[in-house]
Amino acid sequence: MIFPSAHLSTRLAHAGSRHDLVTGASSVPIYQVSTFQQDDPEHLGPYDYARSNNPTRAALEEAVASLENGAQGLAFASGMAAISSTLLLFAPGDHLIVGRDIYGGTYRILTTLFKRWKLDVTFVDTTDPEQVRRAITPTTRALFVESPANPLLQITDLRAMASIAREHGLLAITDNTFMTPLLQRPLDLGFDIVLHSATKFLGGHSDLIAGLAVAREAEMGRRLRAIQNAFGAILGPQDAWLVLRGIKTLGVRLEAQQRTATAVAAWLRQRPQVRRICYPGLADHPGCAIHASQTSGPGAVVSFELADRAAAVDFLKRVRLPLVAVSLGGVESILSYPATMSHAAMPPAERLARGISDGLIRFSAGLESVDDLIADFSAAFNRKMDLRV
Fold first, then answer.
1. 191 exposed, middle or buried (CB, 10 Å; 0-12, 13-18, 19+)?
2. Which residues of the chain are in CATH 3.90.1150.10 domains?
3. Which of 100, 162, 201, 212 has CB 3.0 to 4.6 Å from 329, enough for a Cys bridge?
């Protein structure tokens, strides 16, 4: 057992390292089973049916709870499964205040499935705490934010949001996918629930789909555990093991990716083709000081805007080194086009109102040489597309 006071890099390296008491294996085995023998049918053991609990999944849940300094971690089949299961805490007629600048999948489920559920949602610019205060009604039950937000990396003052939530008896929920526990720990800032798409930086290798939730208090953890068991959107043991393996190298991966993102952001701002750049590591990024006060780094995601849709599409077709794909946080750099990828579910008018133009591109830094990435980007900006390549 690693001491809770150990440096986070040490805790990451040993995440889920329950050595096997029979063989001495250095990591928890993959328990690929659906059910467990019960010696006493009247008093079941901690593992009875794998939807309810599985030792591999339990190791991941314990690890992420420890890393986020929470009481209970829960592993789900995807990031959206984690978000949707958390939203099942609320009843028809409840009101949620949600960040205007939020992942497109979250927007979609709130405006479709949970709208039919009669969950009332107000989207607010959470970078302005007064707008949040004005949106509170007698039926408001929770505040759900992202910081940095996807894809424009707007910064919300998490301490201010937690304070407003406490003042009004609301649950404070945040998606911490972009930052991970390495760079930002919202539960320490007063939040009640933190969510992750573990598909991204935590898994880190673009080879799995997974979601995580961590509750600060044990009672909230029990409520989420009951939903997880009843709803059944659980993470399988093989993917749980892969997330655990990914977490062990998160420290060295994300530190390197962050350095690359910082260098690429500085280079992009010098390019005449780039109209706007969004990155918390730049001193003129809105909310830069707030971000620095609540994190230990700017992260590895940079968004930049070209002139229009044609310019963005041409650039994405010309670039050779990064993946052009739906996702982020992998060991390979990934370029995404929010208009048709992360925010495709958002109507064009809504996207544009939020500043997500058709010229916007999101870059997730990988582990390639920064010199190679910049050379590739430079060539993509400067050459005519060779359709033979």
1. buried
2. 250-382
3. 201
Confirm if 147 and 154 have CB atoms less than 8 A apart.
Answer: yes
Catalytic center residues:
51, 103, 175, 200
Those residues with Cβ within 8 angstroms of residue 123's Cβ, 6 or more apart along the chain or in another chain = 98, 99, 100, 102, 107
* pLDDT tens per residue, range 133-176: 999 999 999 999 999 999 999 999 999 999 999 999 999 999 99
> Hey, how many other C-beta atoms are within 10 angstroms of the C-beta on 339?
23
Would you state the pLDDT for residue 383?
75
- Classify 8-248 by CATH class: alpha beta
Q: Which two tokens stand for residue 40?
A: 């006493």
**CB-CB contact of 275 with 305 (8 Å):** yes
Q: pLDDT per residue over 341-360, tens digit each? A: 888 878 888 888 888 999 99
CATH code given to domain 250-382? 3.90.1150.10
Global pTM reads 0.94
Contact 364, 341 (CB under 8 A): no
Give ranges for CATH 3.40.640.10 in the chain: 8-248
Q: Which pLDDT score, from 0 to 100, does residue 344 have?
A: 83
Per the CB < 8 A criterion, the answer to whether 171 and 193 are in contact is yes
Question: Residue 348: which region, alpha, beta or left (left: phi > 0; alpha: psi -120 to 50)?
Answer: alpha
